Ferrichrome import ABC transporter permease FhuB
Amino acid sequence: MILNLLGGIKWYGLPSLWADTSPGFAIIWQIRFPRMIAAVLVGAMLAVAGQILQTVSRNPIADPSLHGINSGANLALIIGTIVGLPFTIYWRFGLAIIGALITFIFVMALSMGRGGMNPTRLILSGTVFSGFLNGIAYGFSILTHSSQRFRNFLVGGFSGTTLPQIGLLMGIFLLVLLFIFWLRQDITMLALDEKISQSLGNQLVVTRIFAVCVVVLATAISVAIGGNIAFIGLGIPHLVRFFDHRDFQHTFIENMLLGGAFLSFCDFLSKTLTAPYELPLGACSAALGGLFLIWYVRKDRRVAFS
């Protein structure tokens, strides 16, 4: 996180963090600090949203981006902006919630079969629908000649993040954290067989509804602030699980901490590797995450065949 504050188009030394006479003091605290906080909070919420989906669906490759939730929120933001709705963070958050919720309901409906929800169909329908929505979003941005304006939405990024936006982001983060602490035991029991979970007093429908609300809230504010950022919700829970095999209620804090640190590091790379030009944040997170998943899958295969 310190690297994220000091690094960018121009690097500043550590004294710039506290020396108000330094030329970098204002840049660090007015521009880079909100951006760093946004990266940490968004990374934390996307990571825990992915962990919740994986626990609730008992599917290890569940993720807001693979379920189309990110893409639905992203498309709603772009359409709302094109039709002339205000571009304030509150409107963006509201549009993102609507888009994320509609998309999630639609994907869930597609995944339902005679025996209930089919995990394979859920991933396939979510992936296909996510690609479809992303295609529409890119098409709208090209047809309206606004690709540059929607750059952060389409490829992810925190440039231009302001302190008022951080205020809303922090409020939603605390609300999400409150819900998770309240539901942590019930969400953990959802990983068990449904009959066992019910026998332990878990109200399955209520828990799932609240869990979905947490995922939609976390994803919507993340997209409204940072755009379409993939992998975090898929890869971070696997990385935590690699080192800590305990259940949800004992590892969700670890997921949030690692997700925040990972996305902050990706943001640092995106603005320093090709300075003064900035790489798409979504590409950085997907590239780093993809390398880890390739290694993880290969290692898992070696263990399986040994």
The chain has a mean pLDDT of 85. The chain has one domain: 2-305. Residues 2-305 form a domain with the ABC transporter involved in vitamin B12 uptake, BtuC fold (CATH 1.10.3470.10).
